[in-house]
């Protein structure tokens, strides 16, 4: 996961990444940016986060001195990411505390209670400036809020799949998980649907589409060339083995 980025006005820059599973979990890369895509190269790997952060700034400063470029002002990300502790009260050791993504706020509930707008109960909520990794969410058994930017984007993409399927199958309005928003020109999830429900629906659609494709493939005739080869093989099999040749009679040299 990218934790820090420094971008210059020539579309080049440096980034700091973290992979908790790697032997050296922190890395700084140089990158080039084109059409919104970044190519990363020349990684420097580190064992400690403060060393990686220092290396990031040293590399950026050295590059800036060499090429006389200016850092691009990037608007700070005002989005926050909320995660609910559904399995246990919030306490020491019950939530992630990455060097680069520490909690910025906690709401500790007096007991396990229903979360408004969600289909589950929780002991409290923890707010982060950046999204947690999938591994962190699994390790601490947290549930992301449906209002998180990454969850909203995920549900939006899933709504396009589900909405088209619901239209094609004329799903009744009362059973739909999506609606078509004419102002936006796209499908949107209905307010009552949860991230889990729409994700499960997408998986079911993909399963049915795959089964349909397999069925069609079985009923599809083989190519002509394959049919000719099969016919030749069948003809050979029907013909049976060739009769053995008879030896000529021995005439004793006459």
Present the secondary structure layout.
Layout: E1 2-7, E2 12-18, E3 26-34, E4 37-46, H1 49-67, E5 81-85, E6 103-114, E7 121-128, H2 134-139, E8 142-144, H3 149-168, E9 178-181, E10 186-189, H4 195-219, H5 224-239
Antiparallel strand pairs: 1-2, 2-3, 3-4, 5-7, 5-8, 6-7, 9-10
Helix pairs in contact: 3-4
Overall description:
This protein is an alpha+beta fold. It folds into 3 domains: 66 residues; 65 residues; 67 residues, no CATH class. Helices cover 34% and strands 27% of the residues. The protein is built from 5 helices and 10 strands, in the order ββββαβββαβαββαα. The strands form 3 sheets. A 4-stranded antiparallel sheet has the order 1-2-3-4. A 4-stranded antiparallel sheet has the order 6-7-5-8. The chain has a two-stranded antiparallel sheet with strand order 9-10. Helix 3 crosses helix 4. It is extended and about 105 Å long. The termini are far apart. The model has no long low-confidence stretch (mean pLDDT 87).
Primary descriptors:
single chain; 254 residues; alpha+beta; four-stranded antiparallel sheet
CA radius of gyration is: 31 Å
Largest sheet: 4 strands, antiparallel
* Share of β-strand residues: 25-35%
Determine the N-to-C terminus distance.
Answer: 95 Å
Short description:
This protein is of the alpha+beta class.
């Amino acid at each position: 996961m990218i934790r820090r980025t420094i971008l210059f006005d020539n579309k080049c820059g440096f980034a700091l990444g973290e992979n908790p599973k790697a032997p050296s979990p922190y890395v700084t890369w140089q990158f080039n940016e084109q059409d919104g895509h970044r190519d990363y190269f020349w990684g420097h790997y580190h064992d400690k986060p403060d060393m990686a952060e220092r290396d990031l700034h040293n590399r950026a400063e050295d590059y800036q001195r060499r090429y006389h470029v200016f850092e691009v002002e990037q608007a700070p990300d005002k989005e926050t990411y909320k995660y609910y502790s559904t399995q246990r009260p919030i306490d020491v050791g019950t939530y992630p505390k990455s060097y680069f993504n520490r909690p910025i706020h906690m709401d500790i509930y007096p007991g396990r209670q229903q979360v408004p707008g969600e289909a589950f109960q929780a002991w409290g909520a923890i707010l982060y400036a950046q999204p947690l990794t999938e591994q962190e969410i699994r390790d601490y058994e947290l549930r992301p809020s449906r209002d998180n930017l990454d969850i909203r984007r995920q549900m939006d993409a899933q709504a396009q799949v589900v909405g088209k399927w619901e239209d094609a199958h004329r799903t009744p309005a009362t059973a739909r998980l999506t609606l078509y928003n004419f102002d936006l020109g796209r499908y949107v999830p209905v307010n009552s649907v949860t991230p889990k429900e729409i994700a499960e629906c997408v998986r079911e659609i993909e399963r049915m589409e795959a089964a349909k494709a397999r069925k069609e493939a079985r009923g599809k005739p083989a190519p002509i060339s394959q049919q000719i080869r099969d016919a030749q093989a069948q003809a050979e099999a029907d013909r049976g083995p060739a009769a053995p040749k008879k030896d000529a009679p021995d005439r004793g040299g006459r």
